[in-house]
Amino acid sequence: MRTGLLQAVASLVVGVMAVSVQAAEPVKIGAIFSVTGPASYLGAPEARTAEMLVKKINASGGVDGRQIELIIRDSASKPENAVSLAKQLIDEQQVLAIIGPSTSGETMAVKGICQENQTILISCAAAEAITTPVTSYVFKVAPKDSDAARWIFKTMKEKGIAKIGVISSNDGFGMAGKAQVEKIAPEFGITVAISEVYDKQETDLTGVLTKVKGAGVQGVLNWSIVPAQALVAKNMKQIGLDVPLFQSHGFGNIKYAQAGGEAVNGTLLPCGRILVADVLPQDHPQKAVLMAYKSDYEGQFKEDVSTFGGHPYDALLVLSAAIKKAGSAEPAKVRDALENLKGVVGTAGVFNFSGQDHNGLGMDAFEMLTVKDGKFALQQK
């Protein structure tokens, strides 16, 4: 009997140890960012933010008692690289989820792979096609293109602008935005008199803008995320195209505004509140989250935060909340929990996901901003 009791105790100890070891295993999360290449203005702050937040989460005990193991890969802003990296993260690293990629084109290239392998994808890109129609394992945390377009057209209408020229980059974000702009403009009684596409690596937009000027427009809307967008205001000034300039939410990095110099002053864009967190009222629901991120990031990296860096911050927030809600790191359970998250306050807004909405944000995620002396400010109405 004594021997049997000892064996039972030994088995119990072994079982408890096995459970403890299993519970202590880290949750593997992959990340694909454009740390280098044309979209590095997006990917570099995204990578820094993700590393920073994971360290903070782990230092406070992890998620549901488990540490996060973050595996970051640089796509160099190339969709083909994103595809191979996604396969590697899924097949070799067996990650629970992938955060990113940084751009819409890269995300569209990998979303099918993640869906097929039932690996959660939380994109940091904005194109509406990423989550419309809904795909069960694919989510995104950047606000909708269509909501950004409606903010722009609402503002144009208030200013009496009815005839515009649209220019956009020939990448995933630019082409998706162009489609939304041309589709939505008639809702506001606005005519797109001319719509031109430029190469994402373009270094001079005077030729494109000269065509726009010839169309007799009352305003210009640029839709892109690439460095060339910082040239638009400069080139408009050079050719004497003296009409209001609107940018998409892809302009939400202070480096773009700084690169444009004085010519950028007065540019209007819909964007998240991270860029104006300082001036939000103390009782704003996002104020605490925005200021915490801003303080941590700027204190550590000595550079201004951007809306893009906020996307992986939000992705990690909602993923962590889903793991806690599920009480598990099993992909299917976490996916179900993520789809039903409500009221998660992030940098882009307050997320309310559902089976019909894998973005979780509405038009209230945006504010209309302007550029003033190299800084972003709330538009004065």
Biggest sheet, spatial arrangement of strands: 2-1-3-4-5
Order of helices and strands: HEHEHEHEEHEHEHEHEHEHHHEEEE
CATH architecture of the largest domain: 3-Layer(aba) Sandwich
Q: Largest sheet, if any?
A: 5 strands, parallel
Low-pLDDT runs of 5+ residues are 12-22
Shape: globular
Instruction: Please tally the helical runs, counting DSSP H or I stretches of 4 or more residues.
Output: 12
Overall pLDDT metric: 92
What's the CATH topology label of the largest domain?
A: Rossmann fold
Report the β-strand fraction as a percent range.
Answer: 15-25%
Written account of the structure:
The protein has 381 residues and is α/β, with parallel strands linked by helices. The chain is built from twelve helices and 14 strands. The protein has two domains: 209 residues, Rossmann fold, CATH 3.40.50.2300; 127 residues, Response regulator (Rossmann fold, 3-Layer(aba) Sandwich), CATH 3.40.50.2300. Helix 2 packs parallel to helix 11 and helix 5 crosses helix 6. A five-stranded parallel sheet has the order 2-1-3-4-5, with helices on both faces. Strands 7-6-8-9 form a four-stranded parallel sheet.
